[in-house]
Amino acid sequence: MELQTLTYIVVGATFLLYIGIAIWARAATTGEFYVAGKGVHPVLNGMATGADWMSAASFISMAGLIAFKGYDASVYLMGWTGGYVLLAMLLAPYLRKFGKFTVPEFIGDRYYSQTARIVAVICLIVASITYVIGQMKGVGVAFGRFLEVDFETGVLVGMGIVFVYAVLGGMKGITYTQIAQYVVLILAYTVPAVFISMNLTGNALPQIGLGSTMTGSETYLLDKLDQVVMDLGFSSYTQQSGETLNLVLLTLSLMIGTAGLPHVIIRFFTVPRVKDARSSAGWALVFIALLYTTAPGVGAMARLNLMNTIQTGEIGSPTGNLVYAERPDWFKNWEKTGLLAFEDKNGDGRIQYYNDANKEFSAKAEAWGWKGNEMTKVDRDIMVLANPEIAKLPNWVIALVAAGGLAAALSTAAGLLLAISSAISHDLLKGVFAKGISEKAELMAGRIAMAGAIAVAGYLGMNPPGFAAQVVALAFGLAASSIFPALMMGIFNKRVNRAGAILGMLTGLLSTLIYIFWFKGWFFVPGTAMAANTPDNWFLGIQPESFGAVGALINFVVAILVSKVTAPPPEHIQHLVEDIRVPKGAGSATGH
């Protein structure tokens, strides 16, 4: 069957499944809309959490980063999985025991302040909106290639699907939809990885194939990849090339950002008991590990396949490049999306893909008549989606990958949008501005807030400030610098008061936002800051994606110092903090 028709059938079937689940699990109460009635089994919640967590950044962008950055991209694997350990051990069971619906609700009650609750809502919305941009970008990339529609149309279709099952089902519908989406995305990620690993190394498991020899050769796959990229002027794939300080801070930022992401935290409010919250986190790690241990193999093999396709003869030779007129179908297909671009700079009709930044190599290549890298754009987000086509896998595998990429993006987008909706309807409306609102009116407000959040996310997804994983890394920095410290001190430091928490969250968030906006060139006057986006101008050489850890430190220091010079929390709040950490039943700290 022709690829596009098969893709429409597979993707359409998954969309019908998601919508059917949403109709079946439609939320009828605020408890079902916000926390699925607190009745989800921990294994199922672990699977749903895995889908909620493994976003377009995990499915689409992470292997793309690994493909191009090699060793340096391992920080994403360590940071994102390490953060789950923090979440499981330090936050999830205690927040579940508190027994409320949302993260801002915990912060408002713990710091006995409506202002603290409002500040937490602001922090949540800023981090979640930044995160959801990456998901909408992933939806547009997948739709643009496989359904052959333009990027904006792809985002609009994704918005429509999320609107149906998220607005109808709330957390209850999203939970069961995410279970189905996990099955789709994990099959879509591992099946082509198995095929490609078998083709290249003879090993079915890509985790083993990554460290194996090439089929019919005694050369190890990673040694071959090192040779190929270095012959083209790129740095060694398996060696660290980034600054150690940035790698450490980025890993830390991703870890504590993970533990501070509201859309992940609220998943642990959906289980019946405190014990189930920790069990859910353990199961989530198992389900996540299936993809995360596969990603290094996918990234390395995708990069090798890409290079081998373009270099048809002797690597580094001017005659060893693919003739553009003879380029394969996958190349033509991705050119149509605008995510892959070629310019014949020397007029020889060949695709010359070298490293422009390597001056020594450039000087040598220019002797061949080379006038600069002719692959003017290779979007990292295409690597996972294009990999099955490059490897000439069957059409059904390619269609499955398209469905998996969309499942990953939509599942996380739904979780983020629910967190935003809950913050607006439950924390701002019900908790602050209209306390007497009925449950029916609150449920309607939640659905309206969800629709508004989808519209904003769609607009920003059509105008993304970077590739998906980069934008997501910034979102983790924002969550790390604002929400995580407030939660940690709220549970483990009974001396931190409302003034300290409020000022800590604001200074952590604002310092990180200003740093990111300044060095990413989005600050005040368009284009003026881009010149400053170099290691020489960064504070202590810290890249914007890594600054979340510094922002978190600022938050902790400000909160603790302000709390020391102001009145301590009321005695009942200090008892509340102690009660949260006592291993008793869920909700016993607050009576809920």
Give me the CATH architecture, please: Up-down Bundle
Question: What is the total tally of β strands?
Answer: 2
What is the top-level CATH class?
A: Mainly Alpha
Strand order of the largest sheet: 1-2
Radius of gyration: 24 Å
DSSP summary: helix tally: 23
Identify low-pLDDT runs.
Answer: 522-531
Our estimate of the beta-strand percent is under 5%
- In whole angstroms, the N-to-C terminal distance is 56 Å
Classify the fold: give the CATH topology. Answer: Sodium/glucose cotransporter
Task: Classify the secondary structure makeup into a structural class.
Answer: mainly alpha
CATH homologous superfamily name?
A: Sodium/glucose cotransporter
Helical fraction equals: 55-70%
Count of folded domains? 1
Q: What would you call the shape?
A: globular
Main β-sheet description: 2 strands, antiparallel
Question: Helix and strand string, N-terminal first?
Answer: HHHHHHHHHHHHHHHEHEHHHHHHH
Round the mean pLDDT to the nearest integer and report it. 79
